[in-house]
Structure formats: C-alpha cells, structure tokens
Amino acid sequence: MPILTVVLVGVLVVAAVLESVFAVCLGCIAYRFLWECDDCDDISERLRAAMQTKLDAAATS
After folding, report:
1. Radius of gyration of the chain from Cα atoms?
2. What is the per-residue burial (b if ≥16 Cβ within 10 Å, else e) of 5-38?
3. CA-closest candidate to residue 47, choices 30, 28, 31
4. Are 19 and 46 in contact (CB under 8 A)?
5. One pLDDT digit (tens) per residue for the chain, 61 residues
6. Could you give the number of structural domains in the chain?
7. What is the pLDDT of residue 4?
8. Backbone conformation region of residue 23, classed left if phi is above 0, alpha if psi is from -120 to 50, else beta
C-alpha cells in the first residue's frame, strides 16, 4: 500500500508542477479528450496568455 501512495503523490506533484510552471493543465487535456469539447479544441491561446501573465509577474518582482 505505501508504494501506491508514493506513486499517487508523485503523479499529483508532477501535475501540479506542470500547471504552475508551464501552465499545462492535465485535467483540461483529459476533459478535452474524454468529452470532445469543441470549446477545448484549441487552448493554446489561453496557455499563451497564462504564460505571459506569469512572465510579466516575474519581471515586475
């Protein structure tokens, strides 16, 4: 059981790092593939805007 716990925590940490550093939401990607959401087909503009916001925030601090 402890091995499964370590693996699950590791997956959550990887997902959190992807979201916070690279603005890549694994939940959004999974949702798009599971439900074939037309609005979710191209999230690249939202990702670019999120990255730009993070870069702007880093530049001002």
Report:
1. 15
2. eeeeeeeeeeeeeeeeeebbbeeeeeebeeeeee
3. 28
4. no
5. 699 999 999 999 999 999 888 888 888 888 878 887 766 666 777 778 888 888 888 888 7
6. 1
7. 94
8. left
pLDDT given at position 41 = 63
CA distance 21 to 15: 10
Q: What residue numbers bound the domain in which 18 lies?
A: 2-60
DSSP characters over 38-58: GGGS--HHHHHHHHHHHHHHH
The C-alpha atoms of residue 29 and residue 53 are separated, in whole angstroms, by 21
pTM: 0.55
